[in-house]
Amino acid sequence: MLEVRDLVKRFGPIEAVKGVSFSVGMGEVLGFLGPNGAGKTTTMRMITGFLPPSSGAALVGGHDVAREPVAVKRLIGYLPENAPAYHSMTVTGFLQFIADVRGLRGKAKASAVDIAIQKCRLETVRQQTIGTLSKGYRQRTCFAQAILHNPQVLIMDEPTDGLDPNQKHTVRQMIKDMSAEKAIIVSTHILEEVDAICTRAIIISQGKIVANGKPAELRASSPTGRLEDLFRKLTLVESGDARTKEG
Amino acid sequence: MEGFQNSLSVFKRELKSYFESPVAYVFMVGFLLLSGFMTFSVTRFFERQAADLQPFFFWHPWVYLLLVPAATMGLWAEERRTGTIELLLTMPVTLMQAVLGKFFAAWLFITLGVALTFPIVITTCYLGNPDLGVILCGYIGSILMAGAYVAVGMLASAMTRSQVIAFVVSLLICLLLLLAGWPPVTSLFTQWAPAWFVEAVAAFSFSPHFESLQRGVIDLRDIAYYISVMAFMIAGTHVVLENRSAA
Ligand SMILES: Nc1ncnc2c1ncn2[C@@H]1O[C@H](COP(=O)(O)OP(=O)(O)OP(=O)(O)O)[C@@H](O)[C@H]1O
Ligand SMILES: [Mg+2]
Question: Do A93 and B16 touch (CB under 8 A)?
Fold first, then answer.
């Protein structure tokens, strides 16, 4: 469903992503792990067509993002980092706008908005201005935006960031429930999440993939049998030498 | 057709957002107060004893100079600052569709402000016997000129995340374009520069192209001038946004 081939992104002299390749099939939930500044967000931005890759290609549903960006964007639901949303709009107004640009009209639009509001438990705030929502509700509003058109590919950059434990649980459950008929990529800093929802995980460090496998396989290759120690081993050693920029 | 629908969705959201915040009302009141004050107090509209709107249109370039940058400074700068640009540009719309949607929303917004000055037309009709064709022509010219200001403002807004910088930059560019053909400034040049040079500089300016329209003369060259300024600035916005390296 989704294939990434040798993606590279340079920002001037900085090489943020240095040749990342992987693929995600239907029914898979890929966990994207890595320390701060590893290049997770940058990789996602290239897949979603927000940033053009310096080299390499991302294919979604057989379409190359660089050549057919609109076809790719139609297939993807994307929750960007920090859940941006138009603060002057109401939750409903915002979701209606997203439905509108996604080409939904009339009844289809109304029901898509309603379903997204229900799924993300936004009923109580549907007429509230997004700027006045708490962080967690804003996160959920942006999440609702990503699943609104029932996309085949779902890309989420830290979807549980800023949520309370109950909400974290709900969001994980939702991801699990949807995973059967979607290809999903989730980046996270919470390692328990990998066990909870991911069918496979990639650890990325300094723009390179350092581990790729099922959660059980990754745990098996860890010195102590814990994911956390594998993560530390792979990412601390690699970033041991002077990388001051991340401070 | 679908491209048009996409632009229309962006257009509607942008126009709505003007009225969801106080910007619209501050702008409309500011526009009416400024143009009214200039026309009646500075030019002494009534004492001229002439039934035309020349003193009214005379001030439009100056009122726009202040107010249009204020109305356009947020178009892209705000999207970039809050990160919503990442949502907008990962929707299945092309960058050009988004740019056009925003441009026409801002232009229509200014046009609404101009349309609200209709009482002055009624007043003139009541007091005298004006040539309505000339007045209509003046309005058309003024609205075309407003489109050029909006396009400049949008380009400035695309270049930065700061609305203040966008405001100042677009005000400066507009001032330059305005003054380059303004008789008091061109007369400075005529003393030492060859005539063709003065004319060439003036040809790039807003004001000479507005002057004839103001007098009721529709010259296709003036219309072509404004449309090319808009096209150039819109293309510039596209280039700037395409080459941004991040939000
Ligand atoms: N627009 C940019 N210009 C310059 N450097 C950038 C830009 N965007 C990202 N980078 C750099 O690219 C690297 C990867 O950043 P990225 O945001 O992808 O990391 P991340 O893995 O998402 O980190 P986090 O876990 O903190 O979200 C960082 O070193 C960052 O400083
Ligand atoms: Mg990130």
Answer: yes
Domain carrying residue B20: 2-246
Q: How many domains does chain A fold into?
A: 1
Considering the domain boundaries, does residue A86 fall inside one? yes
Nearby residues of B174 by Cβ (< 8 Å), 6 or more positions away:
B64, B65, B68, B69, B149, B152, B153, B206
Domain that residue A154 falls in: 2-10+19-34+50-188
What percent of chain A stands above pLDDT 70? 96
Whether residue B3 lies within 8 A of chain A, CB to CB, comes out as: no
Position B36 scores a pLDDT of 81
Minimum-distance ligand 1 atom for the alpha carbon of A246: 29
3-state secondary structure of B128: coil
Task: Give the strand pairing for A153-157 and A76-79.
Answer: parallel
Domain count, chain B: 1
- CATH classification at residue A65: 3.40.50.300
Closest ligand 1 atom, residue A34 Cα: 21
Mean pLDDT along residues A231-239: 73
A103 falls within a domain: yes
pLDDT at B117 over 90: no
- A51: chain B residues, CB-CB within 8 Å: 245-246
Global pTM exceeds 0.80: yes
Output the pLDDT for position B48. 65
Q: What is the ipTM of this complex?
A: 0.90
DSSP summary character for residue A129: B
Asked whether residue A243 is domain-assigned, the answer is no
